[in-house]
Write a structure and sequence with these properties.
By secondary structure, the protein is α+β, with helices and mostly antiparallel strands. It has a single domain, classed as Nuclear Transport Factor 2, Chain: A (Roll), CATH 3.10.450. Helix content is about 40%, strand content about 45%. Strands 1, 2, 3, 4, 5, 6 and 7 form a seven-stranded mixed sheet that branches. It is globular. The N and C termini lie far apart (about 60 Å).
């Protein structure tokens, strides 16, 4: 009887862990969608909520930007993404930190440079006070 109870508890824990991982994956995919939408329309208020204070980005043209610089580039029209689609996204969560890796196809410009193309990207999220925010982004052109 004791073995049966232990087996049932183990199965319940496995099920709840698998279920939680699936929920977490969707949370991050939703956040990615919110960030994509915010950058495409230059929504600085949404970006401010989605990006942590210490956010840094190594963007599509290779330029390193702080949160303030990212928000200024999008709101000023210097950095403009008109279309973006993510594919092959994977989510790995480690406690209060999550790493998203995927393929991004976009149409846009950084200043006068056309940055349209395919990129492999990594975004890191950190949970602080129960809220997930992006803390880092890096994109590498792919062929």
């Amino acid at each position: 009887m004791k073995r049966l109870i232990m087996f049932c508890l183990a199965m319940m824990m496995s099920f709840s862990t698998a279920f939680a991982v699936g929920e977490s994956d969707q949370v991050f995919r939703d956040l990615e969608g919110q960030i994509s939408h915010a950058v495409m329309i230059g929504d600085v208020k949404a970006m401010n909520n989605l990006l942590a204070t210490n956010y840094e980005s190594v963007g599509f043209s290779g330029q390193v930007r702080s949160k303030a610089e990212v928000m200024a580039a999008y709101s000023g029209g210097n950095l403009a993404i008109s279309d973006a689609h993510e594919d092959k996204t994977t989510v790995r969560q480690f406690g209060d930190t999550a790493i998203i890796i995927g393929v991004l196809t976009l149409t846009g410009k950084d200043g006068s440079t056309d940055i349209s193309g395919h990129y492999t990207f990594t975004r890191v999220y950190k949970r602080t006070n129960g809220k997930w925010q992006a803390i880092s982004f890096q994109a590498t052109p792919t062929k």
